[in-house]
Amino acid sequence: VLGAALAARGVVPDLLVAGEMRRHGQTAAGVLDGAAWTADVEVDAGWNEFDHLQVLAVHDQPTTAEGESEKAAFQRWFEEATRRWTSGAHDESYDESFTAFTARVGAALSRLAETLPRSGTAVVLTSGGPVAWAAASLLADTDAARTDLWLRLNPVSINTGTSTVVRGSRGTTLVTFNAADHLSPDLITYR
């Protein structure tokens, strides 16, 4: 669906990049098929998602509150665990700290901006965490504000949501975040 929507909009990538995770490769294959593109996919581990399973595993799962659904309880646990991870106070508990994650994603964004030809188009297939960090890093001016914004953007990132970043005389700018107009309501998922 995403590939067909991009092709219908006239998107033709000069560069197609994907994280190295299995789901990134699966998404790339689906997008290539749906768009009828024959581009090679450049794999860049900088676009990999953070290890959310480890972030959850080191944070005790709270008990479900009376009347709380399993979905709501999980969401609360996920948000508490990511707040703990982003705080920096427990970096030794994680294989990759939040600071290391954001540096990795920032470096991937910089590599992409440097590699892409002037007026070129890149399509990056990644996950919600890296997309949310790219958006937060382009919108906020301080590390604390970026982290706060990431904590708000990450949980609402839609699978196959599209974000548009442009590079021009004003620098690198976020134009859209998390657009899902290519998806019918029954196809919208978050994890």
Protein architecture, described:
The protein has 191 residues and is an alpha/beta fold. It is 45% helix and 14% strand. It has a three-stranded parallel beta sheet. Strands 4-5 form a two-stranded antiparallel ribbon. Strand 1 (15-18), helix 2 and strand 2 form a beta-alpha-beta unit. The radius of gyration is 17 Å and the shape is globular. The two termini are 17 Å apart.
Q: How would you sum up this structure in a few lines?
A:
The chain is an alpha/beta fold and 191 residues long.
Comma- or semicolon-separated keywords:
single chain, 191 residues, alpha/beta, 3-stranded parallel beta sheet, two-stranded antiparallel sheet, 5 strands
Task: Describe the largest sheet.
Answer: 3 strands, parallel
- For the secondary structure, the number of strands is 5
What is the straight-line distance between the termini?
A: 17 Å
Q: Which blocks of ≥5 consecutive residues have pLDDT under 50? A: none
Please work out how many helical segments DSSP would assign: 7
The side-by-side strand order for the widest beta sheet comes to 2-1-3
Considering DSSP H and I runs of 4 or more, what fraction of the residues is helical?
Answer: 40-55%
Broad shape: globular
User: What is the percentage of strand-forming residues?
Assistant: 5-15%
Write down the overall mean pLDDT.
Answer: 95
Radius of gyration, in angstroms, nearest whole number: 17 Å
